[in-house]
């Protein structure tokens, strides 16, 4: 295969964090207009995908030598917070595609040359095992078989990062991450859900898919920040342990969803609407609405502080190339979990305060509330799980998760 590598870019070619966040904010009106359509179609409208590409927002984690930005984690979180204000599903898909790009950037350099020859390549990520297996083929490669749920953004993707148990019947089975094309795999149209409907996170199946050995990375190595790339090895972004990336991606959806709910609520109470069966002819004059707005706004602000602190800690370790302290990843997981709880509480306060009109399908509030409910039960963001991990670490107990 002929490969193409774009010449290295200078730092002046890379947009600043402020510029990238501004580009994301500029897309919010478009994303809001398309949000219902996105939900109904069960995938991102092509217009959304083109807008993300044209704004350069799918290049955040792409190496600079291919025209990417190598943006740090704080930038990633802030950019996708803005996108989430417009469309929860679009922000979630874009964030997972960025992870797919990042994980591919940890593969051998010649593999990156092949995959990133397409400047707009999109790569999904699916880690659930679900009985998936990889059998060594005797020539250094593997044969991959299984069923992978939650393939966010698969309708627009060319490649996927798949997980599988390697040689499960052997004396030393392992766990690997495999880069595979969608060609030859089957997308099952089973994303019939109540929230984040537009992510198109369908199940994908495949049998005996050949995967060359240079397109596999052992999960244990990825956990410890030992990757297969040489050209990216000295770049802070690409020496971030995989659990740090997963946790900060889990933070992407809620900040924008919660802020969008607050914006919608404030817009409604400022429109001179009464509170039914009371003497309040204008909700903006009612103390209860003041309390509800403040309660939600402060929960969002507190959750943002926890979320951004996680991103800053990850970036500091990456920039300084320092190891994480014992229990630190558990702490970060706990912060993501508690931020999830606060964001969720904020959205519920605002939903309940919006009255019966918010249950209409035409109301953005009902969609935001359903998206928030979907985010809260994601395994990475589940408040009960994350808080348990942090609590165990505080009690001096070993982690009870294979990711920690």
TrEMBL record:
Keyword Ribosomal protein: no
Domain called Acyl-CoA dehydrogenase/oxidase N-terminal: residue spans: 32-95
InterPro entries assigned: Acyl-CoA_DH_C, AcylCoA_DH/ox_N
Highest taxon of the lineage: Bacteria
Presence of the UniProt keyword Ribonucleoprotein in the record: no
Keyword terms: Oxidoreductase
Pfam families (UniProt xref): Acyl-CoA_dh_2, Acyl-CoA_dh_N
Domain Acyl-CoA dehydrogenase C-terminal: 256-382
Protein name: Acyl-CoA dehydrogenase family protein
